[in-house]
Amino acid sequence: MQSLIYMNNAATSWPKPGCVADAVSEALCAPPGSANRGGIEDFDVFEETRKSLTQLMKGQHYNRIALGANSTWGLNLAIQGFPLKTGDTVVTTAAEHNSVLRPLYKLRRERHIKIIWVPVDDGGRVCPESWEKACYTYKPALCVLTHASNVTGAVNDICLLTHIAKQVNATVLIDASQTLGMVPVQIDDWNIDMLAFTGHKYLLGPQGTGGLYVKPGLHLEPLLCGGTGIQSDRKEMPPEMPIHLEAGTGNEPAYYGLLAALRWSEENPADIKRIELLTEHLKQGLADTGAAVIAPQGKCTPVVSFVIEGKSAAEIGYILTESYDIVCRSGLHCAPRIFTDLGCDSTVRLSLSRFTTEEEIKAVIQAVSSIMR
After folding, report:
1. Full set of structural domains in the chain with CATH
2. pLDDT means per 10 residues in the chain (373 residues)?
3. Between vectors from CA 253 to CA 204 and to CA 184, what angle results, nearest 5°?
């Protein structure tokens, strides 16, 4: 029987280190921790996770990380909680995910904000000159930018683009869903105001984990209001971070899994050079079959998008999954605005992880070659 080849890590990573499932299972079997709500007081998994994440992000203020369900939660919290006024401008890019686009559309309807879309090149990367022109022309209150395209893998120069936005006094929100755990992130050195992340991709944690970093001094309105376990006599959410943004009971078992994944990754660093070589092998191999591969120059995540002339992305994805047991993604990848700049209407996306093997890459190339015949 043919083995499953999992090439959808940009959506959710798999497999996970064995310690992740063990940690979740143990947490479910043990008495619940306190999290300010009674229970066992000897260990706060949320605080320990914040500390590990802060170290990974090269930051200093672990209590400025609000933990929730995923990066979509964090992005909504940042965009809808930021004090945008009627008529304010937001500069963002054509590469953004619907987790950015839909909250912005909502604010355009409700607060009549203005949205400026900065195009990307044919590899999905933001051109600094285009970004600078938009920032200096429109003087945005908020800039929202993905660290890397989830369609092409192109990594943006966040340090430079943030510096440009700061020249016009814009607040900067970074979507690091596709990079944290795979590409270095430096929230302090890059002067980032807000950064959203998820735990279930390259951090190798379970679904149901993620959150938002908020720079000291920046105030957001909570997206949700409710219990915090402390200051229960207040009529509004407590002002202290992170509970100011964390209403309700957190997903404790999943965060035990994420903490286990973070500690495992610290002890077992990914071989980034090997992953890059495998990704380039896949790109070249697909191109050799005659497929049209989107191959951005420069730094990329291990994501490869391609199309085959005369066949829809949906058809190719279906054949790869049903005939070859290759798990991939086809379609718009929740980033519909990027495809005009890429010059296609959809793609098949393959995304690697640290566990992807050379044999799997060869099998994928052979499968696509067979489809091309």
Report:
1. 5-15+270-372 (3.90.1150.10), 18-267 (3.40.640.10)
2. 87 98 96 63 90 98 97 98 97 98 98 98 98 98 98 98 98 98 98 98 98 98 88 89 94 97 98 98 98 97 97 97 98 98 97 98 98 89
3. 30
Nearest to 138 by CA among 117, 120, 160: 117
Give the up-direction half-sphere exposure of residue 110: CA atoms within 13 A in the CB hemisphere. Answer: 9
Question: Cα separation of 360 and 327, whole Å?
Answer: 11
Output the CA–CA distances (angstroms, integers) from residue 334 to 72, 274, 275, in the order listed.
12, 28, 25
- Residue that has been written with the tokens 């420069």 in this structure: 298
DSSP secondary structure of 274-290: HHHHHHHHHHHHHHHHT
Q: What is the pLDDT of residue 35?
A: 55
Torsion angle (degrees, nearest 10) of CA 335, 340, 344, 350:
-30
Q: What is the DSSP string of 119-164?
A: PB-TTSPBPHHHHHHHHHHH--SEEEEESB-TTT-BBP-HHHHHHH
Q: pLDDT at position 36, please?
A: 54
Q: pTM of the entire structure?
A: 0.96
DSSP classification of residue 181: T
Distance in angstroms (rounded) separating the CA atoms of residues 227 and 247: 5
Question: CA–CA separation, 326 vs 4, rounded Å?
Answer: 6
CA distance 163 to 57: 18
CA distance to 59, 213, 214, 239, 336, per residue, from 227 (Å): 28, 21, 21, 13, 37
Query: And the tokens for 74?
Result: 């964090």
Instruction: Give the tokens for residue 342.
Output: 């890429």
User: What is the DSSP pairing of strand 5-6 with strand 326-327?
Assistant: parallel
Which two three-digit tokens encode residue 110?
């409700």
CA angle, 218 then 224 then 230, to 5°: 85
How much is the pLDDT for 1? 41
Task: Report the C-alpha gap between 123 and 373 in whole angstroms.
Answer: 27
Instruction: Say whether 246 sits in a helix, a strand or coil.
Output: coil
Per the CB < 8 A criterion, the answer to whether 175 and 199 are in contact is no
Query: What's the pLDDT score for residue 305?
Result: 98
